[in-house]
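hey so u asked for the seq, here:
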Amino acid sequence: MPVTTTSTQLTLSNEAYVSEAFFRRECEKVFRCSWMLVGLVKEFAQPGHVHPLTVGGVPVLLVTGTDGVIRGFQNVCRHRGALLAFEPADGCRALTCPYHHWSYDLTGGLLTRPHYFGSDHHDTTPGPDAPGLIPVAVDSWHHWVFVNVDASAGPLSAHVRVAERLLEGYRVDELCLLDTLEFDVPANWKLALENFWEPNHSFSLHPQLMQAGTSANRSAVEYEENVIHGAIDYETDVDPDQLPGGDTPAQQGDPQKVNRSAWTMLFPNVCLTFFPGNLGVIEVQPLSADRTFERLHVYATEDVANEPELTQARQQIIDLWALTNQQDMDALRWTQMGRCCPGFDGGALSPYWDGAVSAFAELLTTRLNTND
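ran it, structure tokens below
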């Protein structure tokens, strides 16, 4: 595992950010055996919905059964290994392979094998021992759907245990989706995460976030198990219009958190930020060593989401998130290009702000070595 020690800080070497071979190892050792955020529960609400995606390089198929249960399978026919689905579809009653028309029900069981016993001799009752689709683990947490390609993985509840504790005092399940924004990120997925939790660039890149609180109000980033988190406490007498998202109804149940913004990174691909009045959840999809795709899901209280008189407030929240993320794109491009400089040795890290960089390097290193 290529690492660099800077004073007492552990960092990842340039190879970890630019090497396709290193990225393939991450796919195999991290993404394929971790709980990965892949979408929203509401996107799978309709029975018969079929959604193909890729997790750690593995084609996966999510299917909503007639019973409303979301199930996951490797997206491959058991006959000759062809993909079953290429685009999302609704109203499906079965999954039919385009190659030889083997068909499967929405629970993954094999239904029919045309011409299996010869021309016009079809297998219409394959039986329970016939090869069905290969399952992957699927579960949901609040509004969000997670997949683990390892069907024997431990429960999602264990994976989100620390993050769930940090969400206490927030009425997460009462929030409504305002919009989903999409970003093509010109950088390695790790740089996207590091930029997310590192608060010390806000004064230079995000002046709109500094109106209600300076860097002095920001706590150093903390880390615990598979979570990195931090917060900023605003002055109690701050003008509500200066809060991120403006003067919108607070979505927190805990009054002490009304004047606080808090962010949480759940390894390996979930970023949550609570602003007063709204929540942003970033779904990080690693694509290659130097490219990442992000979906940013923006939430607010039901009245903000639905009341006509709050249309302006609603748009203000969406615009804030769009601007903030777009401002980060240049920084991510700079740091990705900088990792191509052989003289860069991991950085001269701040002992106050950058402790999480070392914690993240250690977490990733442990995961890569544990799954050998």
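Residues 160-370 form a domain with the Naphthalene 1,2-dioxygenase Alpha Subunit; Chain A, domain 1 fold (CATH 3.90.380.10). The chain has two domains: 36-156, 160-370.
lmk if thats what u needed
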